[in-house]
Amino acid sequence: MIGDCLKLTVYFGESDRVDGxxxxxxxxxxxxxxxxxxxxxxxxxxGFGIKHQLHTQRFLTLSEDLPLVAVAxxxxxxxxxxxxEATALVGGGLVTLERARLLSDHVAVGELPEELNExxxxxxxxxxxxxxxxxxxxxxxxxxxxxxxxxxxSVLLGVDGTVHGRRRRARFFSxxxxxxxxVVGVGSGAAVIDGLAALDGLLADPLLTLExxxxxxxxxxxxxxxxxxPDSDPSGLGVWQKLTVHAVEDSRHGGHPLYVExxxxxxxxxxxxxxxxxxxxxxxxxxxxxxxxxxxIRRRVPVVTTIVDRPDExxxxxxxxxxxxxEAGLVTSEMVPAFHAVAPETRRVGGLRLARLRY
Amino acid sequence: MSVLVWLGVAxxxxxxxxxxxxxxxxxxxxxDGEFPLGTFAVNVVGSxxxxxxxxxxxxxxxxxxAGTGLLGSFTTFSTWMFETGRLxxxxxxxxxxxxxxxxxxxxxxxxxxxxxxxxxA
Lengths: 359, 121
Hints:
By secondary structure, chain A is α+β, with helices and mostly antiparallel strands. Chain A is about 20% helix and about 40% strand. Chain A has helices at about 25-35, 75-90, 135-145, 190-200, 260-270, 310-325, and strands spanning about 1-15, 15-20, 20, 40-50, 55, 65-75, 95-105, 120-125, 130, 135, 150-165, 165, 180-185, 205-210, 215-220, 220, 240-245, 250-255, 255, 275-280, 280-285, 290, 305-310, 330-335, 340, 350. In chain A, helix 1 (about 25-35) packs antiparallel against helix 2 (about 75-90), helix 3 crosses helix 4 (about 190-200) and helix 5 (about 260-270) packs across helix 6. Chain A is globular and about 50 Å long. In chain B, helix 1 packs across helix 2. The longest helix of chain B has 28 residues, at about 5-30.
């Protein structure tokens, strides 16, 4: 296990450009040059940013500039090396840094670092066409995580990325076998230890990260509030928080899709942004894993929605999330130690020095 | 049909597409629901205008230019179907059916109204 790793996340738009090139290409080229261990570019289905303009694949005219999320994980120095260039590229969007632990080769761990015991998010990078025996690898991985007692997992399909330092980009006429997908699971520390043990030796070239989270809600039941964190750490560096809502199967609120209602409410209440990414497979609680079925028009795939904001604002958005997830949904909260938002009018908020809080 | 009419259809088709994009976005960004009101608006407005043209007795090249060229690209069948499909994917069967039913009724009504107004003028 490599303890001191960072996860860099950039939230931006599909049509954002820098020097005449697509920002998504520029960012992933940068990750490729830096040979980052793991990076994935995810396409969102719905979201909004600081301008509160809705982007959604539900309406054709509003789907021209869908949200994108680029995530990269590596050792701290390697991420810090790409940071200045990455932030210089982003003309409008949000850049965050989070602490993570990276596992490769042997994924089984006897015990977890203490702070991961309450709950842990495990993200596993797999090839789109990677197989374990005859089955697609993500099916087996999700089954094992579920058997180990994780609260839920979603499989998110990437369209570009780097795996073990090598570029894996989806092309139009290609099998795209190596293009990364992410399996994101959440569970108690004990369940994650069991899950990792069940995955040991199973993956050809394992690459996964562990992050500290808190499980706030599951299947409509409230388990905890997001931790009440101060606005800044003892040295004065800003502290931010992230709420993640995993809407599973066709989770609904008031008869409408959960993610649609959530984005609508957050926009109404004046949140500064939210992004929904649709997965292709997943499970929650005791329900069996599910995905789309042949000849079924209605989609049964997970949608993961993310909100990042200041701690006091997060308490506000949690009340919105709480209402919308009255019937279903897995809600987690995390601390975000560095946050840098760039609005098009060159308004900048936050910075990328990591805050340090003991909690 | 002369080359000039061909070019006219192409040019007006482009104008219609741009107008459609503008009106669609204008309406859609002002509504908050799941109903694709932007597409609905362009189709109803387009039906009214086509009814009006026919009611006014416009025919020949003029109808080809304004009807097929301008209104043909202004209104959209494919987006209507696409957005209905997306509603069905999200499990919004009622809104999906309403999108089909209401659009047909409103489109027929708008076309008839335009024709009546045109014929009376």
